[in-house]
Design brief:
Length: about 350
């Protein structure tokens, strides 16, 4: 454990009766970090967030925030605030009253309170909205009010449980960028829960990928996408092609692997401990495979196949190429850079080329 962790989750387990919702998770989060918990429904994201907030207690293990153990600290005394998925704002109050709601116990002069609310309205880009009724707002505006209401209390940590889940795609993408910019401006630590991998990649400094109560990998967005540590992460984040193989040689930082379909290839060893004789899988992203009409003798690796299906998606095209010895068609993705598609729209023989360092051994 590093000492400069602002939030430290140490060996935390959570049982609900005989069901283990969280299995021995340890996570350190730095001050000012935008940290996401990512995983499929039921993997334990909300449970972990609720333990940070103090609404649930770990069955074993300890949570530290700002150097303090949290086991005996009730929710309202923790330096955290939480924003939920369904904009929990009060319909009978106007925007100003909603944002100031948490301040009411602080006995501030009205002028000071109004000044703080106006600052928040500027921050969430809704200046002058103070007198609006809460019911006269769009979904995105309501969610920004809910954020302002949490932020006005100046928490050291903001916990967000799928706060954009109820918004439509376009508004959601806009709010992702706004929320990220807002977090950078105010510089507090965000712990953000989502099951949407693209959202997590867009927004986060680091992401903890969870499955069935376990932590699969904790990494930067680039780390998760480019060098997944296991098959679960590789297939959960983006699309991945997998090829079965056996390690036949080891030299320095490379492994030579005899694969089904791709033949003998070389791939970086990275953090793996694989050696000669180990059964492995080689994983290659669709966009790392370059499709060509002819064999390129310069390419580090290439294989021939048969282009079966093409899908034109505007900005890019997806292709499915069958290769002898590989069960599922290999996915290939290309940018449509010349304004007329990629030219590969008919079934035919093609070559796939790739650089050795794009292959990940799992
Ligand atoms: N109070 C509870 N009692 C019993 N089981 C619970 C309780 N709360 C959560 N669980 C179980 O713990 C597991 C994790 O639930 P959790 O709400 O943390 O999932 P999640 O990752 O947030 O999922 P989602 O994306 O659907 O919100 C689930 O199997 C859930 O049924
Ligand atoms: Mg949840």
């Amino acid at each position: 454990m590093t000492n400069d962790a602002f939030i430290s989750v140490r060996n935390v387990k959570k049982m609900f009766g005989s069901f283990q919702a969280i299995e021995n998770i340890s996570i350190d989060i730095a001050h000012g970090e935008f940290f996401s918990l990512l995983g499929a429904s039921g993997c334990g994201k909300t449970t972990l967030l609720r333990m940070l907030a103090g609404f649930e207690n770990p069955t074993s293990g300890e949570i530290y925030i700002d150097g303090q153990p949290m086991s005996d600290v009730p929710p309202h005394e923790r330096p955290v605030n939480i924003v939920f998925q369904n904009y929990a704002i009060f319909p009978h109050l106007n925007v100003r009253e909603n944002i100031a709601y948490g301040l009411r116990k602080q006995k501030l002069p009205r002028a000071k309170r109004n000044e703080m609310v106006d600052e928040m309205l500027d921050l969430i880009a809704l200046p002058g909205y103070g007198d609006r009724k809460a019911t006269e707002l769009s979904g995105g505006q309501r969610q920004r009010i809910a954020l302002a209401r949490a932020l006005i209390l100046r928490p050291k940590v903001l916990l967000l449980d799928e706060p954009l889940g109820a918004l439509d795609k376009q508004l959601r993408e806009q709010m992702q960028l706004e929320l990220r910019a807002l977090q950078r401006t105010i510089g507090i630590t965000f712990v953000f829960v989502t099951h949407d991998q693209e959202e997590a990649l867009t927004m986060s400094d680091r992401i903890a990928v969870m499955q069935g109560g376990k932590l699969l990998q904790l990494d930067t967005p680039t780390g998760l996408y480019e060098t997944p540590h296991n098959r679960e992460v590789a297939s959960f984040i983006g699309t991945m092609n997998f090829f079965d193989g056996v390690v036949t040689a080891e030299s320095g930082s490379d492994l030579t692997i005899d694969t089904k379909g791709l033949g003998e290839i070389v791939a970086p060893k990275r953090q793996t401990t694989y050696g000669v004789g180990d059964v492995v899988q080689v994983a290659i992203r669709p966009e790392k495979l370059q499709m060509a009409d002819a064999h390129d003798p310069e390419a580090a690796h290439s294989v021939s196949g048969f282009l079966q299906n093409a899908a034109y998606l505007g900005e890019r095209s997806h292709f499915y190429v069958t290769i002898d010895g590989v069960e599922r068609p290999v996915a290939v993705s290309s940018q449509n850079i010349n304004g007329s598609g990629t030219g590969f729209d008919q079934p035919r023989k093609v070559w796939l080329n790739w650089r050795k360092d794009v292959a990940v051994v799992l």
